[in-house]
Amino acid sequence: MARGVQAGVDSVRDAADRGVRLTGGPLMNGKALEVGTVAAIAIGLLVWPLLTPQVAHFYGSLSAIYALIGLSLVILVGWTGQISLGHAAFVGVGCYFGAKLLNNDVPLVLTVPLIGLIGAAVSLILGIPSLRLRGVYFTIATLAFGAACQQYFFTRPEVRGIAADQVPRADLVGIQTTSDRGLYYAVLVVLAIALVLAYNTRRTDVGRVLFAIRDSEQAAQAMAIKIAPYKIGLFAASAALASIAGLFYGMLFQATPAPEQFSVLQSLFYLAMPVLGGAEALLGALVGGTFLAVGQPLVNMFDVRLFLVTSIALLLTLLSGYDGVTGALKAARKAVADAVRGEPVRYGSFVPHEEVDHTPPRVHATVADSPPPVGSVVRVRIVPGVRS
């Protein structure tokens, strides 16, 4: 018996060694492929404006702004399962209040965190009263919040009023934003910082707690996790990112758009970004933001409405069963890797190299001359590897 177990252990070790050697290449090593993909995307984002005409820089800036909005929804929808239909209102808050700060000569490097704090503070007005709301009830609350902002709050003279305000393009730590390419690099810096913070948060205990809350709030409560601070904090962080994106949105158009640009319908478009790109992957925000930014000029070439194309793309994504485009690419990479290296090693079971003697062991016990009383407990010590 002991020899059979030892043979099985040796088999598992050999299989593990073969698995390490097989997965050592760049195609099989998921970590190396992930690092290489991120590096390639970063280089492409930096070099892209240098290789494209000036007319494309506007859509590049718009893609980066939408990616920042998509990131705010990825951490909200994909990490905690909270669906918001009023996120366009936070974008409007950042746009209108950001214009007032920039017009009062507040530096952009200070305006960005201030707008984030303003968006987080506004989110507490909605988040704290809606703390006990879950599922569709929380979604309805955000829907009412977005409609109220569009119809009443944004039309106030002290916020936006009837006439549009001019939004100047201030410099960000030496990056001049007077051109669309300069604004693209400024938004890219903020987006990169937000991605790094989100990536590091996901790897900490806070990230694991957020996913636990998403999967089952009852199970999280049974583990003595206080759900309220995490949900309110993440909702505030999501609103802060959306508000910062609204600041750059106003800088891109150099004017404050009408309140209709931050309607509930626009929130639905924003919500489509993490679904199409991937609700759990940070790179899904980039994919969804690019789709929404470049989708409008592309569909105009075929005289098709963007709402129709987005609806079809959402249906195809949901029917595919993958977590957006990033989920499909991850599944394709895994399929190719398994096909190249053969059947992956199953560590849960093994087949020993040599046959194992399955005969049941025999136990020899020596007792006193007289039989023990009925009900007595006999303790037997079995020594492994000893056979007679």
TrEMBL record:
What keyword terms does UniProt attach to this protein? Cell membrane, Membrane, Transmembrane, Transmembrane helix
Known PANTHER family for this protein?
HIGH-AFFINITY BRANCHED-CHAIN AMINO ACID TRANSPORT PROTEIN BRAE (PTHR30482:SF10), HIGH-AFFINITY BRANCHED-CHAIN AMINO ACID TRANSPORT SYSTEM PERMEASE (PTHR30482)
Tell me the organism: Sporichthya brevicatena
UniProt membrane topology term? Multi-pass membrane protein
Main localization category: membrane
InterPro entries in the record: ABC_transp_permease, LivM-like
Q: Which domain of life is it from?
A: Bacteria
Name by which UniProt lists this protein: Branched-chain amino acid ABC transporter permease
The UniProt record lists the keyword Cell membrane: yes
Please state the span of the N-terminal signal peptide per the UniProt entry. Answer: none
Please name one Pfam family that this protein belongs to. Answer: BPD_transp_2
Residues passing through the membrane, by range:
32-51, 57-78, 108-128, 135-154, 182-199, 232-256, 268-294, 306-325
Subcellular location per UniProt equals: Cell membrane
